[in-house]
Amino acid sequence: MPSWPASHAALLALGLSLAAPALAWAQTPPTPLLAPPSGGPGIRLDPPAGATTTPLPQERTARPPAPTVTARPLPALDHESAGWNRAEGGFPPTLWQGSAWPGVARLLDRIPAPSATPARHALARRLLMTAAARPADAPAGAFLERRLVRLLALGDAPAATALARAVPQARLDGPRARPAAEAALLAGASADACKWARATDVDMADLFWRRLLLACDAADRQAARVRLGLDLLREQGHEPGGGFAALLEGAVGLGDKPAVAGPLDATTLFLAIQAAVPVEEKAVAQATPAIAAAVARTDSLPVALRLAAAERAAGAGLIEGALLGRLYAEFPLPPERLAEPLAEAEKHPGAEGRAVLYQAARLEVVPARRLERLAAGWRHARDGDAGLAFGLAAAPLVREVSPSLDLAPFAGAAIRILLAGGEGAAAMRWLDMIGRRPGDEAAMAAHAAAAPLVRLARGDEGPAWNAEAVRRWSAGMGGPAAPRTAIGLSLLAALGDLAASDEWLALSQDPGGPAASVPASATVVWFAQEAAAREGRLGEQVALALVALGQAPVPHPLAAFSALNGLRLADETAAARRIAVEIALQAGL
């Protein structure tokens, strides 16, 4: 949960008052700052053969020309523009039109990696995977290289591999080959990686390629080549690492097969899997999210090892909830451990405890008992910073239960699990159910607490959001100055739902003394987003929103407002809503 001082709440009120011009129209759907270009999706990137362009005549008037947007021809798409088109979920091919390469490169490098939540990851992946013309002045190969490197930094090896496969192999040379090869190893496409390692144009002065070539030879059981390669490395003064050398020798029968204790990189994991060598849990725990996701996807590894990795990967958006649910269900548990699942889970604070509750809920046919176990699993996961991951896996189990008045005590947990799993419509049905119990104080309190969450997810299709709803919810959060109130009001305001003026006035009180400074990065990014929106630079708008959100699961309220309002201006309201719900859940709303 966030822990901003009361002075930050005061600054939130001040900052949002400065944003009054934007907020004044925020209660209605956003109006594009620039008219959309004519032509539509079928616009040609090049004029027809033989066509000529006639310049417009100069105005014959003394008055100065009105400010306007200069039309720029679309740059041609090439191999560096490979990726998703609009039908596949990408942005328009004009994503980077008007953006200069130096600024784009800096922005892409600043996108937080790995992502803090699944929705932020999905947005970053869309940005990097979109089939769009490269920015102006980008050196040949630089745009493709940066996309591959940043996808790998996000931990999304399958996406990076898909991008690499869409590019002619001749273009995957030099610095572009290494991230493509690393991604292929982690995505289960080792044949691609070994093909690049055996190419004649890779830089064998880079120890990565020497190690990968040895690993590929070991996977093919080429003992003589492995022995020769190790000898050559040592003669040249290179040491592949004692653990890696022993792993190579064990893989081809030249020695024992030692367990991998770490550090675990893509090449070591590939070799360990090929040689059926045990991998220790601590090695996976210390590895990058990309490694964790690869471990989670590898069926030949033990379920217990994969489950801990899968929770990390799911929380960062790197695997689907269905895979995490399957690993929860396959975790080896004898029947007696499921007899008293709540007590059993308390003995195990990690993924094992959540597997107990998931399996017990999955086997339970009595709705109240199933929801009791899933609610306990939600609390267990939330306390262990795995709430979003557990929600992704558990949402299908909640969806199988129909809302009914006798299940009202579990409605709050059901709503939150469903929202974590992206099930906004199902969450709304549960909220409607507890709203029909006007005499039940507990149900009314649960309704007031969950209403803004569903409103974030559903907008006008969700519950009403008015002054009375704000007051009821704010009281349950601990009052207007509470950190949860500040972040909740910021998220709602960014999506067009303004709170009552007295709530903002209450936020502006500062009992804690002098106001702490607003993060400088939030201020800079806010103004940069405004400039990008005015000039129609969509790629920059999206990238700046991700930069503003930062690495923390719960960003500063002003940073959250800036980012999500910027996405709404870019007509990315659906993405903004998904991100807002995740922030709210992480903040404990």
Profile the largest sheet.
none
The number of distinct β-strands equals 0
Decide which structural class fits the backbone: mainly alpha
Number of helices: 30
Oligomer: single chain
Global shape: flat
What does the secondary structure layout of this molecule look like, with pairings?
Blueprint: H1 6-18, H2 20-24, H3 101-110, H4 118-129, H5 142-154, H6 157-165, H7 177-186, H8 190-197, H9 207-219, H10 223-235, H11 242-251, H12 266-274, H13 281-285, H14 289-297, H15 303-315, H16 321-330, H17 341-346, H18 351-363, H19 367-383, H20 387-399, H21 411-420, H22 424-434, H23 441-458, H24 467-477, H25 483-494, H26 501-508, H27 520-534, H28 538-549, H29 557-569, H30 573-586
Helix pairs in contact: 1-26, 3-5, 3-28, 4-5, 4-28, 4-30, 5-6, 5-7, 6-7, 7-8, 7-12, 8-9, 9-10, 9-12, 11-12, 14-15, 15-16, 15-20, 16-18, 16-20, 18-19, 19-20, 19-21, 20-21, 21-22, 21-23, 22-23, 23-24, 23-30, 25-29, 27-28, 27-29, 28-29, 29-30
List keywords for this structure.
589 residues, mainly alpha, 57% helix
Characterization of the model:
The chain is mostly helical. 57% of the residues lie in helices and 0% in strands. The chain has helices at residues 6-18, 20-24, 101-110, 118-129, 142-154, 157-165, 177-186, 190-197, 207-219, 223-235, 242-251, 266-274, 281-285, 289-297, 303-315, 321-330, 341-346, 351-363, 367-383, 387-399, 411-420, 424-434, 441-458, 467-477, 483-494, 501-508, 520-534, 538-549, 557-569, 573-586. α4 (118-129) packs antiparallel against α28 (538-549), α6 (157-165) crosses α7 (177-186) and α16 (321-330) packs across α20 (387-399). The protein is flat, with a radius of gyration of 27 Å. Mean pLDDT is 81; it is low at 5-71 and 510-517. Residues 31-73 are annotated as: Disordered.
